From TrEMBL:
This is Small ribosomal subunit protein uS4. PROSITE patterns: RIBOSOMAL_S4, S4. Keywords: Ribonucleoprotein, Ribosomal protein, RNA-binding, rRNA-binding. Part of the 30S ribosomal subunit. Contacts protein S5. The interaction surface between S4 and S5 is involved in control of translational fidelity.
Length: 199
């Protein structure tokens, strides 16, 4: 299973944002030997590449998967960048995270891999599974007492997003609609990613 396993605080410092959740770091400047010094002006390509990397790290997707999603977005109707973010939001691991079942996307990915999550009553253990509108995502009956799930739901109180519906009694949520760009809270300039891949 391919995923990023490197230092998370270093990446968060690089982008100046908590893209892996609340990773603690005492240093508020970029990593590297010269992180504290004045930086050269970043090129246009560098800015576009940085935005793509930020999106990849945020959603926990590697290069090939990301490129495939971009190609799929390019073939779809609508604005390429917005469709790309919608496809990323529809990933099962992301939906589990958004519903509050897990505190981070990495934790959500692990819950999916370990067969704790069901979609329309069937176990799905593929984090990249694309959830369709109207599908119900829930926790397996024997996994409902798992401490990580109980703690996460207690601190989040379920989903806070208008495109998702959470049923506390059944430990399940529903994808009501595909989120619009305004509803996606991630600080990603998707147009820069489109420009990068369009070169």
């Amino acid at each position: 299973m391919a995923r990023y396993t490197g230092p998370k605080a270093r990446i968060a410092r690089k982008f100046g944002e908590p893209i892996f959740g609340s990773v603690k770091s005492k240093k508020n400047y970029p990593p590297g030997q010269h992180g504290n010094s004045r930086r050269r002006k970043t090129s246009e390509y560098g800015i576009q590449l940085r935005e793509k990397q930020k999106a990849k790290y945020t959603y926990g997707v590697l290069e090939r998967q990301f490129r495939n999603l971009f190609d799929k977005a390019s073939r779809s109707k609508g604005v390429k960048g917005e469709v790309l973010l919608q496809l990323l939001e529809q990933r099962l691991d992301n939906i589990v995270y958004r519903l509050g079942i897990a505190k981070t996307r990495a934790a959500a990915r692990q819950l999916v891999n370990h067969r704790h999550i069901i979609v329309d009553g069937k176990v799905v253990d593929i984090p990249s599974y694309s959830v369709k509108q109207g599908q119900v995502i829930g926790v397996r009956e024997k996994s409902k007492s798992l401490e990580v799930i109980v703690d996460s739901l207690a601190s989040s109180g379920g989903s806070k997003y208008p495109w998702l519906e959470w049923d506390k009694a059944s430990y399940s949520g529903k994808l009501l609609s595909i989120p619009s760009r305004e509803d996606i809270p991630e600080n990603i300039k998707e147009q820069l990613i489109v420009e990068l891949y369009s070169k």
